[in-house]
Amino acid sequence: MLLFHMNQYSKTNLTRSGARWFGLILLGLTSATAATEPIDPVRFQRATLTVANLDDSIAYYRDLLGFTVSSRSAYDTPALRQIFNLPAGAVPELVLLDAGEQQPRSLALVGAAGIQIDRDENRRGAPALLFNTAQMDAIHAAMKAAGREILLPPTPLNDFSGKPFGREAAYLDPDGVRVILFEGINHHD
Predict the structure, then answer these.
(1) How many Å apart are CA 99 and CA 120, to the nearest integer?
(2) What pLDDT is attached to residue 84?
(3) pTM summary value
(4) Distance (Å, rounded) from C-alpha 139 to C-alpha 61?
(5) Fewer C-beta neighbours within 10 Å, C or N terminus of the chain?
């Protein structure tokens, strides 16, 4: 199973932060004054990818990287349409994927008929997803067997002082998003 760092955003933090900013607005403080207030760090909730072929992307993340499908349903809101620039008339589906019990709903896929994805543009400009794994060789073999694009086979990685640190490998998902796997030094011989 793959893991990546995620902390759930608690209602307590949301309420406290929201109340503080609401109070600043009510007091009429300027944005310069508000900017001097310490900001609680944001907490990672999930990565959401717009995909051209939902079934192919589900198979990639489920079958090759070990995610499980938490839910799949039609989900249409004005915010979703605006954020993901969905085509008029398209009925979007949202798929939530779990990266193990400790990381529920950590990856989401949004798909709809008519979505066009430029794989080359994604490869050049889209953020990369980085996952930790203890199964680098098995995942690499599965990627190879499935004919998926391999950018970098498992390769030794050194820390800034030059000491062995682990291995990493990189692949492209069906829409050209870079998927990087990291395996710490203690996970292989």
Answers:
(1) 27
(2) 86
(3) 0.75
(4) 11
(5) C
